[in-house]
Give the backbone structure.
Amino acid sequence: MARTSSGADIFAGLKRRFDALTPSPPGWSVGGRAFAALGAAAAIALGAALSSLVAPGGAPLPFIVAPIGASAVLVFAVPSSPLAQPWAVIVGNVLSALTGIATARAIGDARLAVGVAVGVSIALMSLTRSLHPPGGAAALLCAMLAHREPALGLSFALVPVGLNSALLAASGWLFHRFSGHTWPHVPARTATSVHDTSDPPPRARSGWLDSDIDAALARMGETFDIDRDDLGALIRRVETAALMRRHGPLSCADIMSRDVLKIDQAAKAEDARRLVRDHCVRSLPVVNAAGVLVGMAGICDLLHPDERIASVMSDAATARPDDPALALVETLADGRTHAVAVVDTYHRPVGVITQTDLLAALSKRAHEPA
């Protein structure tokens, strides 16, 4: 008997079609968008106020241009996009504005000029690695203004377009000191060998390569608004999430060593070398007088001639006791980190997880019955 579609089925089908027509960038959140909206509003208002003080008085031209509104959307709402970085915002807008004015001077027909201006601006932004979507609007706007205002000079590309862009970039930099995002965005670090050998790094020897991402992108024939290295970092995190899902809950507290061997930052390197030798470990958490973790002293650190631990220690990788232990796979497979310090709410070490601890946990889970 044929199944009759219920109202719920029809609604679900309509919702899927609607969602397909209204995509949202991954990572979207209501709180994040609200905070970005407030930042963009403040930045545009501040930019308009400051630009109005510099723009020539009485000029029949805007003191802030409309494409800056589009630039603000990128800078505040999608700050990790390669199209939203300071170089793209400033150079992309200014270069496109210059292109629009110059094109209007060279082509008398405004309808043809605006099309050529946008096309040339896309080409120039691509060549200078400053591709910025609002730049196309800046080119079109300036081409139209140049036809309407014959006296419009190339200086318009600097004031107000360049000034607006620079003020927006400055506001974005200040805003993202508090937003939780790094801006200018620094792409995820590409894995490299840390041992000064010809071998690829550990995770590259056991998984996909950057060239695999390039090949996949080439086969898809699409351009994505994400840096290639960020895409690689995302794939690694997806792999880790899948690993955690398959193997079930396992916290850092479940596998960490609790009898923590540590060394005071005021101690001598020889004391640390003795601990490493006597207990056959590769890393020691370094603490201050209050017992707070301040770094990690590994075997390579202790080879330095300096006699003070504080002078040779490295930054410590940390986790909390209730963090998923399998989330440390990427950290402990980077070729640099041999141990993670597990800290309490006061940042005092309460445990240590080494590569051996994690490998033992993975091996045990792999042999457990499904």
In short: DSSP finds 15 helices and six strands in the chain. The radius of gyration is 28 Å. The chain has a mean pLDDT of 86.
